[in-house]
Amino acid sequence: MRFVILMGLLSLFGQVNADPQADHERAREARLRDEIRPIAEILHHIGEQIPGQVIGLELEREKRTGQPVWIYEIKILTPDGRRLEIEVDARDGHILELEDDD
């Protein structure tokens, strides 16, 4: 589980933007302002609902219903080999969208 979380964090900071330091700071500041939940908590919550291995993770700021919202985009490889893309509200861990990439 620690490996999965570590890989998720590395992906998070490497894919959000071209500047990893700015990405790290944006995510840290959002966490300090309580705008997002810790990624370990989100991954634990999602893992209880959807079994599989995290193969990708991004933190994005999107407009939804006219308001900017932090979204974790999590890619999971399920035990039966399917690839899922899950969009999660980073504030509360609620699944917003689940797509089968196959």
Automatic annotation (TrEMBL):
Cleaved signal peptide residues: 1-18
InterPro entries associated with the record: PepSY
Residue stretches making up the PepSY domain: 47-98
Keywords (A to Z) from UniProt: Signal
Keyword Signal: yes
Superkingdom of the source species: Bacteria
Pfam family, one: PepSY
Record-given protein name: PepSY domain-containing protein
